[in-house]
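note to self — DONT lose this again. spent like an hour looking for the file last time. sequence + predicted structure for the chain T wanted, 96 res
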Amino acid sequence: MLERNADRLIVGTALAFAASTLWPIVKNTLKPLAATGMQGAAGLTERIQYAMQIARDEMEDIVAEAQFERMRKKLDQDISAESASFEETGGTLHAE
């Protein structure tokens, strides 16, 4: 049991020493990586916002075209109904 505790003490001391030695190296390595990652994330966010704006504009165009088409068909129906009534009355207009 004493041997096992001694092994744990040696391993723990070695890990503490390694961690204290490696921490500045890891920290100096990760700082630029984190900064680059943040810049990449900001660029990605801008691209996503741009793509969303284009998609929104496209959807608005599709909706506007559909509304225009619906209005044009309604107007065509009204005109053809008025033409039919004009022909039925023998060329005189009447109020509906």
